[in-house]
Amino acid sequence: MAQNVVMQSEELFKKIVAHAKEYGFVYPSSEIYDGLSAVYDYGAYGAELKNNIRSYWWQAMTYLHQNIVGIDAAIFMHPTTWKASGHVDAFNDPLIDNKDSKKRYRADVLIEEYIAKLQEKIQKEIEKAKKRFENFDEEFFKNTNPRVKEIQDKIHQIEQRFKTALENNDLQEIKQIILDCEIVCPISGTRNWTDVRQFNLMFATQLGSVSDEANTIYLRPETAQGIFVNFLNVQKTARMKIPFGIAQTGKAFRNEIVARQFIFRMREFEQMEMQFFVKPGTEMEWYEYWKNDRLKWHLALGLSPDFYRFKDHTKLAHYANAACDIEFKFPFGFKELEGIHSRTDFDLSNHEKYSGKKLQYFDPEENKSYVPYVVETSVGLDRLFLAIFSSAYKEEMVENETRTVLSIPPALAPVKAAVFPLVKKDGMPEIAQKLWDELKFLGKVIYEDKDTIGRRYRRQDAIGTPYCITIDNETLQNETVTVRERDTMQQERMHISKVYSYLEEKTSIKTLLRKL
Ligand code: GAP
Question: pTM value?
Fold first, then answer.
């Protein structure tokens, strides 16, 4: 019987990062030169897992919706794109330095972390009270307990001040909030802060080899603009009628000030974005529709619903009239996983203005042309990878030994199955090789004949392989094999001819898509 090993979240996160490296999922980029801050490479199993997550998203978007098509736009775009989108002027983060430690922070993150700590204090009071009272009523307690009410009022006050300061771009006030909350630098422990400044997150480079002709261009900070500038091309060539969506996955780049927490915040990352073009005035209906649809997509993975929650944005981005995040419970707390934004006609109208080209849709039902409104869903592939990987990581005690297992949903698992001949003789390797030849069409399947069966199982558990198939003495007599399931470690015997369809049923992305 397996017993879960309980760990503090910090220790757990360290183990997750170490495991990702040791087992070929994620390495620091250019590690032989000591790495590059907030840039990572995916290894043999990481690349498979990432591809599977991307396929699940792509197929759910473009195969399950008649009115969504996918594109693949270039990373480089005409520089005016970023003027029109507002990124040149407004894609900034407020940064602040601690004069003693010389460390740089995002001022908004310092305040958000301070609020999160206050929320933790409330949670602790609730946990304490739960133990004291029978028939505990949490809502009543929150509304009446003086200590909790005091903290809640404090949070509300800070949030209000912070929201107003962000809306007015009042950097002095943001610094004042940090001082009033007595927030200290975690390194130096002091409150010796510089003023808050804005910092543009786009990476710039030069186009062309002759410097005279060279033009400053940007590495795209979001994939969405490649969709907006192609709106009419796609609408016409794919013969789409409003409402319709355009989906895209691809790299995005941001010169993040604070790049911590492994692949949670990277400088080079991948986004999976879908812009849904709708009739003006219907955008709020579609905003609600996509909030539900996207949560359902996440929940189909089978992780606990308690890992997800919605959070409305405190400050709306320069393009949005409504926006929220789906947050995920990472080992370091609830953080943004996906954004759902009602972007109005901001982007298309601005591209019309800057390009001088019409980006309008002729609506045959209305008998008129208009600039569509847009509801966007945007999720980071790397962040989703971290969510799935970190929630899958488990250590269990099995017969006085620690078993490390990645309970990745089988449909996304990097390796679908492993085939083992029990021993390297008696014709077992030949049967195993023949089975592998059949199973390889399911996805990545491993053939392994080294070490004891127990060690082979453990290696597969550690990379999340959901099924291991063993060819043994009984196979030679009646053509049956054992199929061992990763999470329960239970073994089932079945005829070798049944294995392919059994595994296909359990490990195909279609099993997830059918739940949607
Ligand atoms: N087009 C809208 C947009 O880009 P965003 O909230 O800035 O919105 C969308 O980004 C998603 O991209 C986030 O929810 C997150 O999952 C991912 N993301 C953003 N910045 C990231 C970073 N530096 N590293 C990894 N993922 C990031």
Answer: 0.88
